[in-house]
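Residues and backbone
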Amino acid sequence: MELTRENYNETAKELLAFLQNSPSCFHAVKNVTDMLTAAGFTEVKEEESWKLEAGGRYFVTRNQSSVIAFKVPGKDFKGFQIIASHSDSPTFKIKENPEMRVENAYIKLNVEGYGGMLMAP
C-alpha cells in the first residue's frame, strides 16, 4: 500500500477513535481483543492446555488488563518479530476506601499516581 496523506489521516483518525474508546487499560484490552478476533485470531486461556497449529493466530489475556497476540510460524520459519506495548501507565488509580468528605458539601475520591507520573510539569 502506498503511503499518502490520506492514509496518514485515516490512520490518525483510527488511532484517535481507539484512544477515545479506551479510557482505561481494561477498555483498551477489550478493544484490542475485539480487533484481533475480527482479524481471525483465536483466544486461548492461560489456565488451559493449548492446541496450537502451524500458521495459527492466537491471543491470551490476563486480568482483562493485558493481552499477548502471536502467530505460530509455518514450515518455512526464518525469524520472528516482537512488538510490545502496555496500556495502564501512567494514570490515576482510585485508592481503597477512597471517599473523602469535603467541607460537608461534597465527596471526592482519593487517588494515587501510578506508573511513574511526572507531576511537576
User: Anything to note?
Assistant: The two ends are 40 Å apart (CA to CA). The longest strand covers residues 91-102.
